[in-house]
């Protein structure tokens, strides 16, 4: 069908827009499906610019989702972290992700209002013009410009310190893993920034720190306690890209339990560690085949 062909040309972009706005793989998948249902059957000559039209439709869907999501997250047990995108050959790999969707940055976006987040993502990440964003959030183009400006200032002020050197990032992650698994406290203190932050998202379903752990000594001790519960006979560690940057996935051989680690690295040291343990946020991963 012609409408399916046209839709498939933009599917990857639509999924990326949805994931950036919602921070949820499940919501992004649902939003893409809903957008397809709305697109299906439209007369071919009714839409002059399918890309712009579909971007507006999926952005509206996700903007509406943000309102209800904020209510749910206010009662969430412990820190709320986005659902991770792990490069393991699943359908989520259809999008190339970069620093704009790192878990630490997505966590900063959670502090914006739905309108600010939508305006910032659409304009600064996807280059959508302000008049088109205005249709999504129901504001004037000038108001949307101000929303994006406020969001941009906050993101710049609160975004994590990070390196753009992929190999530097990978070396830091490898050093962290060696130190943790080897019980090397001095090695951990060396690779962790003095002001490192550890966030754990268990959602009240698995044991996890309900408040961020701050400082290299506390984080090092916390990581060592976690390692003592690791049994190589039943658990495996996989080096995988997590939201576009080198990370780690720890999972049992049957894929029933897992934790995904995302890292921010600056000047050779780890500045932030995000650990996602909530099984609801990992069910989109094909854990046995990682």
From TrEMBL:
Which stretches make up the RNA polymerase sigma factor 70 region 4 type domain?
A: 104-154
Coiled-coil stretches are none
Kindly list the biological process annotations in GO that this record carries.
DNA-templated transcription initiation
Q: Which InterPro entries match?
A: ECF_Sigma-70_Domain (IPR052704), NTF2-like_dom_sf (IPR032710), RNA_pol_sigma-70_dom (IPR014284), RNA_pol_sigma70_r2 (IPR007627), RNA_pol_sigma70_r4_t2 (IPR013249), RNA_pol_sigma_r2 (IPR013325), RNA_pol_sigma_r3/r4-like (IPR013324), SnoaL-like (IPR037401)
Q: Which UniProt keywords apply?
A: Sigma factor, Transcription, Transcription regulation
Could you state a single Gene Ontology molecular function term? Answer: sigma factor activity
The entry describes its oligomerization and partners as: Interacts transiently with the RNA polymerase catalytic core formed by RpoA, RpoB, RpoC and RpoZ (2 alpha, 1 beta, 1 beta' and 1 omega subunit) to form the RNA polymerase holoenzyme that can initiate transcription.
Query: Which family is annotated?
Result: Belongs to the sigma-70 factor family. ECF subfamily.
What is the recorded name of this protein?
A: RNA polymerase sigma-70 factor
Q: Could you read off the lineage of the organism from its UniProt record?
A: Bacteria, Bacillati, Actinomycetota, Actinomycetes, Kitasatosporales
């Amino acid at each position: 069908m012609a409408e399916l062909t046209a839709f498939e040309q933009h599917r990857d972009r639509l999924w990326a827009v949805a994931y950036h706005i919602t921070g949820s793989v499940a919501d992004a998948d649902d939003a893409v499906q809903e957008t397809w249902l709305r697109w299906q059957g439209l007369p071919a000559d009714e839409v002059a610019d399918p890309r712009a039209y579909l971007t507006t439709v999926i952005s509206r869907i996700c903007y509406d989702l943000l309102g209800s999501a904020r209510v749910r997250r206010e009662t969430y047990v412990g820190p709320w972290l986005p659902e991770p995108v792990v490069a393991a050959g699943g359908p989520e790999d259809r999008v190339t992700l970069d620093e704009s969707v790192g878990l630490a940055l997505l966590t900063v976006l959670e502090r914006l209002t739905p309108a600010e987040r939508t305006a910032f993502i659409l304009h600064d990440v996807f280059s959508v013009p302000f008049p088109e964003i205005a249709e999504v959030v129901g504001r004037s183009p000038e108001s949307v410009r101000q929303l994006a400006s406020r969001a941009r200032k906050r993101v710049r002020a609160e975004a994590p310190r990070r390196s753009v050197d992929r190999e530097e990032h990978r070396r830091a992650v490898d050093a962290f893993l060696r130190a943790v698994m080897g019980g090397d406290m001095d090695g951990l203190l060396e690779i962790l920034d003095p002001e490192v932050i550890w966030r754990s998202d268990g959602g009240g379903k698995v044991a996890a720190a309900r408040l961020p752990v701050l400082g290299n000594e506390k984080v090092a001790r916390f990581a060592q306690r976690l390692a003592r519960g690791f049994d190589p006979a039943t658990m495996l560690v996989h080096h995988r890209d997590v939201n576009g940057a080198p990370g780690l996935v720890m999972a049992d051989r049957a894929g029933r339990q897992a934790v995904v680690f995302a890292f921010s690295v600056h000047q050779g040291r780890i500045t932030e560690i995000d650990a996602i343990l909530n099984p609801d946020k990992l069910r989109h991963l094909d854990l046995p085949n990682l």
